[in-house]
Request: fold
Amino acid sequence: MFKKVLIANRGEIAVRIIRACRELGIQTVAVYSTADKNALHTMIADEAVCIGPAPSKDSYLNMKAIIAACEITGADAVHPGFGFLSENPSFARTCEKCGITFIGPRAVSIEMLGDKAQAKETMKENGVPVIMGSDGAISNIHAAHTLANELGYPVLIKASAGGGGRGIRIVNDDSELEKQMTAAKQEALACFGNDEIYMEKFIVDPKHIEIQILADNYGDVIYLGERDCSMQRRNQKVLEEAPSPASFMTPELREKMGKAACTAARVCGYRNAGTIEFLVDKDGNFYFMEMNTRIQVEHPITEQVTGIDLVKQQLLIAQGEHLSIKQEDVQIKGHAIECRINAENPELNFRPSPGTIRSLFIPGGFGVRVDTAVYQGYEIPPYYDSMIGKLIVYGKDRQEAIAKMTWALSEFIVEGVSTNVDFQLKLIRRKEFIDGNYDNGFLNRVDILKQERSNG
Ligand code: ADP
Ligand code: ADP
Ligand code: MG
Reply:
């Protein structure tokens, strides 16, 4: 049993993990940057260690400082949350070398799946359908031209080390190819320190459907249904729901995708919670896109519809316990929706809006859950992600969940900074959303603020 877990993260996910540890009787250590001295995670953990100045590279990405914090406090495990070091194989390896359990997969699995081009190859070899594209990375422009013409334009250039929707470029014809490859390489290098790129056929208006899995140390893998993350802006998720609307998802497709996801995890010797992201086309064909080897931002909607606490499961798996849940025990019940609440100004092209929260009202009530780390008087620092919380609702069916989300968003008040609360409210009131009739391209086609349809 872990005695003490250090949480190598900040914000709402750090708070979420501290709470799970508390329920399991595990002591917690927060780490914080000088900008997060008054952050909630710093205040509510049993102990807190300052690991450096505000910029992430000097604090939340500073492996030496984090390992030192483990040693000083005697923490026996590290939970990396999402973002930051959560998918960094050398961090996982360093923890293990220092005798600290990394609450996640083995470093080799992170390495293998973190290289998205290589991961696709492995999946293909094991019978998991993948999006047509380059066999591994691509660098030669002549080979790229030939392949793009074979696939047929448009194609996407993607970063092998990519994440967070960055390093993705669309190419519409031969004349743009070289320019976009160069741009993608530069962006990949700047964002991920690795300029390797690969090519994929661009699938027109698919849906982003991802499968949550849990895998233990002993080869047992189960799937916990899907999350529909098709509501995206610039390849970044805005709102998620579980299950996917019944007009799209069938029990047969869910089972097929669930089994493919379990295969994907098994062939990598995966352990931990994990997510296999698929694109699904209009005909219900699904294709492996990538696997995220960590807890996901949108994990609460799966928790709501399955009743399974995913963070506690991560802790139990990392402690070496066998999965206590069997596939037949997993029942999807009711409907959950999550809206990401960001400190940003939708009117100014979603520009981040850091600053002090002067006034705050967080809705509650039957079926409403808010995962956040902000409070009245809190100053949102400008250094980190603009997501300040997640509003999650659970209803007996989709209609009830939408009704709850509508009143919960209407009651949500944040003053002092701009947020996307009104944007989310307009979004969930759209007929297309209410009808469950949307795909990954929806927010590109529709201007939610204008409430008008534009063409294309
Ligand atoms: P999810 O499916 O969990 O939403 P995202 O890709 O949106 O996954 O990433 C989760 C979090 O991690 C977000 O806060 C995002 O900004 C951050 N993130 C993802 N990839 C990276 C990366 N390579 N570098 C820095 N932050 C990242
Ligand atoms: P990241 O690692 O940044 O999360 P993903 O590979 O998961 O990148 O892709 C992010 C999003 O980009 C997807 O959810 C989808 O909307 C879009 N996308 C990625 N690949 C394709 C593709 N081949 N065709 C169409 N859209 C795609
Ligand atoms: Mg992704």
Remarks:
- The chain is about 35% helix and 25% strand.
